[in-house]
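INFO  loader      accepted 1 record
INFO  loader      residues=267
INFO  predictor   begin
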Amino acid sequence: MKSQEKETDHQHMLTGRRRQVILEQVQVFKAVKTSELSDSFSVSQMTIRNDLNALAEQGQLVRVHGGAIAREWLTTEPSYQDKASVNRIEKEKIGRQAASLIEEGMAVFIGNGTTTMQIIKHLPVDRRFRIFTNALNHALEVNQLPQAEVLVLGGYLRGVSLAMVGRLAHQALKGIFFDLAFLGANGISIERGLTIPSLEEAETAAEIIDHSQRTIVVADHTKFGIVAHGRIADIADVDAIITDNGLDSRFANALSNLDVEITTVKV
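INFO  predictor   done
INFO  writer      dumping tokens
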């Protein structure tokens, strides 16, 4: 009996230590995957899911399909540099798929963000087009491409996201219309719609939708179920969403009831 009690105590200690390490990883990397944690600790994915569920119930993190993200992401705005290191493979695949939709002669708006940057990095080289953006780093990247003409919206530069917003951006949009617009989002909720932390960026993004013939949102699966401070639009206000195949089937089913095209890329 005593040996069984000692063994149970030892298991509790191992569980507690493992969950502490998981929390430390979430704080450092802002997001963790169940499969990677399972390999790292040499335990089953079911065990990791139980750990993540327990930590979520304590308010230590937020559960998403395939893993968890830091709770602070719901209330604070991560910097561009912080976001660039999260879900790199998913963003690269999404960006490549989105870039393939750009056709010869199009006027295309590409909003700020780390996922939209992957569109920039995979722009087609066999056709010419015009790129509009409100992101300074995007503009510098496109400027290196001989096949693309780049136009930058004015405004003041938000250092945390590298986006230009404000009255000048609003003025610049007057009289400009796009064949295609790509926007990122920090949160995609069936009930609350498309959201980002900055109210000013949300206002600019909403205007972009009004000025575009077709709008596509690019976001990896960890953005679904999240709500940030600034609402851009309802999901039904955009034409399509490109995400990865980590998307929870519950969201996929709910989105299928809306008049929005959903493309999932395999990771």
